[in-house]
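Weekly modeling sync, notes
Attendees: S.R. (lead), two postdocs, one rotation student

Agenda item 3: backlog of single-chain predictions. S.R. asked that every request posted to the team notebook include the full sequence so nobody has to chase files. The rotation student volunteered to paste the first one in as an example of the format we agreed on. Action items at the bottom.

Example entry:
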Amino acid sequence: MKFLDEAKVYVRSGDGGAGCVGFRREKFIEFGGPDGGDGGRGGDVIVEAVAGLNTLIDYRYQQHFKARKGDHGQGNNKTGAGGDDVTLRVPPGTQIFDDDKETLLADLVKAGDRVVLCKGGDGGFGNTHFKSSTNRAPRRAGPGWPGEERWIWLRLKLIADAGLVGLPNAGKSTFLAAVSRAKPKIADYPFTTLHPQLGVVLVDNAEFVLADIPGLIEGAHEGAGLGTRFLGHVERCGVLLHLVDGTQDDVAGAYKTIRRELKQYGHDLHTKPEIVALNKIDALTADEIKAKREALKKAARKTPMLVSGVAGTGVTEVLRALMKPIRERRQGEVAAAKAEIEPVEEPVAKGSWRP
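Predicted structure, as returned to the notebook:
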């Protein structure tokens, strides 16, 4: 399945049905009163986050969604049937923007979240609503109200426990392939990965989702390359694994470039927990490893881990280091959920009675 993280869609809710002009005409009732029914309500346009989806590829091939109109009213005070709703199913983590791509309409973070984007038009009144003491036989009915329409942008920000960041060709895809069953494209040139990849990682009988974010470059926060779209996926990750290519000359500069882009992009990306790892140590000598580790330690102000995705060196240690903040985050979410569910007991005054 191809990955698509952004799509433009046209949505329109259904128009309301028109009211009916009708009169009673039973046998022996010569001058029956009005009995025109109301029109039915138009269908809504709903967007719902559904578990099991991780791409917006369906909206590349269908961009127009229109809800059905409400049926017209009928005689004998019959109200027209309401129009069927249209539901757009999207992956959890999808944001909905207006046509200007800046106004956020909704953020569907978890499965089950839903929002009504366009409400269907109300049905028109039948002539029964217009009768009065002075107008006993009105020949007037209301037309249905029009539905709403708009162009929207769907933007997916992958929800993963951990994210891989680093310059192009830092070995992120190789690492993901080594620790999961994901099969990203791997080659010896920059920007091999053009779309984020997800993999489920198992370590010490615990699982978490690892996202391979395509390589960032200098100026990514301003849109260089595909930076702004890639950085958006980092927002949903709980912890970052920053891989630095050990075979390049300036490992400290490579680290600082990514950190600078994360900070200038905003959304508190630079404050996320970070594990720094010097990658591709299988291609370095012991002296080179020592020198570059010291240079990276000075730049990151923390001791970097040593890893090789190809040889499998240090992989388990890195995964365990990632699992620690992930476990703490999950425990915090569970505690917060329990706090919302459990009622707060009010203190009982001394001498009072509570049934």
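Discussion: group reviewed the output briefly. The helical segments are 58-61, 172-179, 227-234, 251-265, 286-300, 315-341.
Action items: rotation student to repeat for the remaining queue; S.R. to check formatting next week.
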